[in-house]
Specification:
By secondary structure, the chain is an alpha+beta fold. The protein contains 2 helices and 10 strands. It binds 2-acetamido-2-deoxy-beta-D-glucopyranose (NAG) (9 copies). It holds the Pfam family Kre9_KNH.
Amino acid sequence: MKFYTAILYFSCLIASVLGQTSTTTPAPLNAGVAITNPVLNATAYAGSNYTISWTILDPNATTIETISLMDGNAAALTLVIHNILTNGSIPVSDLHYNWTIPANLTSRQDYALAMRGNNSYVTYSSFFSIINNNATSNNATSK
Ligand SMILES: *[C@@H]1O[C@H](CO)[C@@H](O)[C@H](O)[C@H]1NC(C)=O
Ligand SMILES: *[C@@H]1O[C@H](CO)[C@@H](O)[C@H](O)[C@H]1NC(C)=O
Ligand SMILES: *[C@@H]1O[C@H](CO)[C@@H](O)[C@H](O)[C@H]1NC(C)=O
Ligand SMILES: *[C@@H]1O[C@H](CO)[C@@H](O)[C@H](O)[C@H]1NC(C)=O
Ligand SMILES: *[C@@H]1O[C@H](CO)[C@@H](O)[C@H](O)[C@H]1NC(C)=O
Ligand SMILES: *[C@@H]1O[C@H](CO)[C@@H](O)[C@H](O)[C@H]1NC(C)=O
Ligand SMILES: *[C@@H]1O[C@H](CO)[C@@H](O)[C@H](O)[C@H]1NC(C)=O
Ligand SMILES: *[C@@H]1O[C@H](CO)[C@@H](O)[C@H](O)[C@H]1NC(C)=O
Ligand SMILES: *[C@@H]1O[C@H](CO)[C@@H](O)[C@H](O)[C@H]1NC(C)=O
């Protein structure tokens, strides 16, 4: 909370310094970032470390508040993990995040990540695969 207040104060400070330039830009429909990894149909392995990376679309975007793991149909994604960030929000300027993929995830080809920015909009990744080579959990979860 303290950390957030500090960011808010800092960005207000920047905003007041840069406030003279008045360009009207439409409200962004994403978190101000574009996810560059995973790419479409990338393969990741349950239980391994995976680097999520992104580029900056909106230079004013400050933080990524949550990264959710979803799966299923693009029109109605199902939430699998609400937030994979283990230590709260992360700065957009990090440009990557090292994710330890849980060992108990089901093998699927239709996972997607959803990053929620500090502007409350969401950026989605392409669909990608997570493969679980763990025989026990595969048997327990495959249909
Ligand atoms: C970034 O913020 C400044 C100051 O509020 C504003 O003038 C500018 O249009 C913003 N840029 C974008 C891409 O939203
Ligand atoms: C990605 O995988 C889906 C499902 O397997 C397939 O339909 C699609 O053609 C693939 N796209 C690319 C670009 O490989
Ligand atoms: C993943 O990264 C963490 C932290 O750097 C490390 O402790 C762990 O051994 C790594 N796991 C694998 C499977 O490489
Ligand atoms: C949140 O992000 C927007 C741009 O995406 C930026 O203009 C704004 O200053 C940020 N707000 C905070 C509280 O960091
Ligand atoms: C967790 O985040 C705090 C700031 O919110 C930071 O000081 C600390 O180093 C972070 N810990 C790890 C393990 O990244
Ligand atoms: C993330 O992983 C990359 C590649 O393994 C490594 O160079 C980098 O230091 C790691 N970053 C953090 C914050 O652990
Ligand atoms: C295998 O799956 C079980 C049950 O989900 C889990 O507890 C275990 O950590 C997994 N082991 C490995 C090596 O992935
Ligand atoms: C995986 O394990 C976590 C606890 O470590 C649990 O909360 C979650 O429900 C498990 N997911 C699946 C798909 O079994
Ligand atoms: C899971 O399936 C594999 C091959 O399909 C089999 O060899 C293994 O014994 C099964 N494990 C369990 C716990 O049923």
